């Protein structure tokens, strides 16, 4: 039996009756609110059947019974506890209990408890009020809804901050997400770098979208509370915390309002990556649940910012290393016009396994080179850097190409054996010396690389018969050496196997080959060295279509003529991506 089942009862018979029952009851309006003792059971009823007074006293709901005049006639023990103002013999409307005094059923708050009341009519114009304390169930439901809202908020935060790649954008997202769920004003201060601390602030007016601004503080201008947060200490909520935020100029949106604030550190790797200040009007204090949510938010924000800062640091290191590994444009030299082209195997990185460059000699000549290292990826690019550094040091000791190439071989062997790399390279290394008539004398040594081409003034293309062994494999390699003279306007062309081994054509698997290269440059004798290098790159890429390719490198030397000066051609390089080396060099 529930309280809703009770309508009216005949105390003499102990049976429940509905409002439609026409039987008169023994409980009259003049009866006491609660009998001093339970009425005797009727003779024809089983003694195991309890009287209704005994039953209703154990209801979860409280019962208040009124007569037709609205006078309270009975108050159950539960109702006495919930509604102490309601007493038998008084008018219910005079009790002052909201929801009962005005006769409106529903939910209301009374003495800090959440109650529900419903009215049921009884016979003879009487009525019964059922009053229930739903405080615990409402609180549980509210707590569940609040927890779901917090979980949904943190899920959104995790999604928005899941993959940051830029610290500034991540910091702006952190303060924007904090408003308005956590604060009306949120300020993020990153740990100082080079004595300067960046801060971001998001503030919200009414229902407008939060606005974000940023600024810089020197280490001495950091508020003490922020300094504690950056040290991993969470300051208590005290007035001076708000005062410091106001002095820093962070709370204009809360000017003139009583404000509460908290500061929490943002966890990083070894130390906090920053500190987060949240502030709002004192109409909503930061209770323990709010503080726990702020800390959970700060943990996610700290992880996102740590990732973004780590990516930035690694990107800076990568940029520095890439800049040091990029092919260096040939040094400007008298009588030589340089032309270069370079395209790494993968469009995302600027470095690869091909290399070229030049160095000036004291006698006016120039050492020039183009080569290709074995392997792929970053290791191949690093090996090219080591090789170029060796050449930069050794050319000051030896200028004869064959001897210089042997010294380079010894240095590479020592380096690769020390690191257990087992790498090698192919290279053409030469010395260019200007002549009085504006021509050039080229003395070139070969280390297993493709033979150079010479584009004569007549438009014909000659292959330089240059042979030699790989560099970095054996202690005393066989190195070929040849001397070639360029008349004014003639060009010598060095290139990597990324040109001749480019696969494309109709079927997509045919190599470009040396014959197509010769055909492409035949008749281009009037073309400047930069334009010729670009032409070779372009026809190679046209042959490739959209297919994959190895590193492509081209170095052109043109005899500039009498009084001619070298032209440095800075060839455009694709946007950064992943390095892919030149592959296995061929002997």
How would you describe the overall organization of this protein?
With 587 residues, this protein is α+β, with helices and mostly antiparallel strands. The chain has helices at residues 52-56, 77-82, 135-160, 167-178, 224-230, 239-247, 288-325, 377-394, 401-419, 497-500, 513-521, 529-544, and strands at residues 8-10, 15-17, 62-66, 72-75, 106-110, 113-121, 127-133, 185-190, 196-203, 211-218, 259-266, 274-281, 336-343, 354-360, 366-373, 425-434, 440-447, 453-455, 461-463, 480-486, 491-495, 503-504, 510-511, 552-559. Strand 5 (106-110) and strand 6 (113-121) form a beta hairpin. Helix 4 (167-178) runs antiparallel to helix 7 (288-325). The termini are far apart. The model is unreliable at 1-43 and 567-587 (pLDDT under 50).
């Amino acid at each position: 039996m529930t309280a809703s089942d009770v309508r009216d009862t005949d105390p003499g018979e102990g049976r429940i009756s509905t409002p439609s029952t026409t039987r008169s009851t023994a409980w009259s309006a003049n009866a006491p609110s609660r009998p001093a003792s339970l009425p005797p059971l009727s003779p024809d009823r089983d003694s195991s059947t309890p009287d209704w007074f005994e039953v209703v006293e154990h209801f979860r709901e409280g019962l208040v019974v009124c007569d037709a005049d609205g006078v309270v006639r009975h108050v159950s023990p539960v109702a006495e506890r919930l509604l102490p103002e309601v007493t038998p013999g008084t008018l219910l409307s005079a009790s002052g209990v909201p929801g009962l005094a005005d006769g409106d059923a529903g939910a209301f708050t009374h003495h800090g408890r959440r109650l529900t009341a419903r009215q049921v009519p009884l016979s003879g114009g009487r009525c019964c009020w059922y009053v229930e304390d739903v405080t615990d169930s409402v609180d549980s439901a509210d707590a569940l809804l609040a927890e779901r809202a917090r979980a949904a908020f943190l899920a959104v935060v995790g999604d928005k901050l899941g993959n940051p790649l830029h610290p500034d954008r991540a910091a702006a997202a952190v303060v924007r997400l904090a408003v308005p769920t956590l604060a009306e004003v949120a300020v993020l201060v990153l740990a100082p770098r080079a004595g300067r601390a960046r801060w971001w602030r998001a503030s919200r007016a009414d229902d407008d979208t939060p606005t974000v601004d940023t600024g810089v503080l020197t280490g001495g201008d950091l508020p003490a509370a922020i300094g504690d947060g950056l040290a991993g200490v969470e300051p208590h909520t005290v007035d001076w915390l708000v005062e410091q935020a106001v002095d820093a100029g962070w709370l204009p949106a809360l000017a003139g309002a009583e404000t509460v604030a908290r500061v929490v550190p943002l966890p990083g790797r070894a130390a906090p990556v920053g500190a987060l200040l949240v502030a709002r009007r004192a109409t909503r204090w930061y209770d323990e649940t709010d503080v726990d949510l702020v800390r959970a938010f700060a943990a996610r924000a700290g992880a996102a910012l740590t990732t973004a800062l780590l990516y930035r640091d690694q990107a800076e290191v990568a940029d520095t290393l890439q800049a040091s590994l990029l092919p260096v444009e040939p040094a400007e030299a008298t009588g030589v016009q340089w032309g270069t082209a370079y395209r790494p195997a993968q469009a995302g990185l600027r470095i690869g396994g091909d290399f070229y460059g030049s160095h000036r000699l004291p006698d006016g000549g120039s050492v020039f080179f183009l080569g290709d290292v074995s392997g792929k990826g970053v290791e191949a690019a690093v090996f090219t850097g080591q090789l170029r550094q060796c050449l930069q040091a050794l050319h000051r000791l030896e200028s004869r190409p064959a001897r210089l190439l042997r010294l380079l071989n010894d240095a590479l062997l020592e380096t690769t054996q020390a690191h257990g790399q087992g790498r090698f390279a192919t290279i053409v290394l030469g010395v260019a010396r200007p002549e009085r008539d504006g021509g050039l004398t080229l003395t070139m040594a070969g280390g297993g690389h493709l033979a150079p081409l010479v584009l004569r003034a007549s438009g014909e293309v000659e292959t330089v018969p240059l042979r030699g062994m790989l560099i970095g494999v054996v202690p005393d390699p066989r190195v070929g050496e040849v001397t070639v003279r360029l008349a004014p306007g003639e060009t010598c062309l060095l290139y990597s196997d990324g040109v001749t081994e480019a696969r494309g054509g109709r079927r997509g698997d045919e190599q470009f080959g040396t014959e197509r290269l010769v055909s492409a440059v035949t008749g281009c004798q009037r073309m400047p060295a930069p334009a010729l290098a670009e032409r070779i790159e372009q026809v190679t890429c046209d042959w490739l279509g959209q297919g994959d390719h190895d590193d492509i490198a081209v170095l052109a030397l043109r005899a500039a003529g009498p009084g001619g000066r070298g032209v440095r051609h800075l060839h455009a390089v694709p946007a950064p991506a992943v390095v892919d080396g030149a592959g296995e060099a061929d002997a």
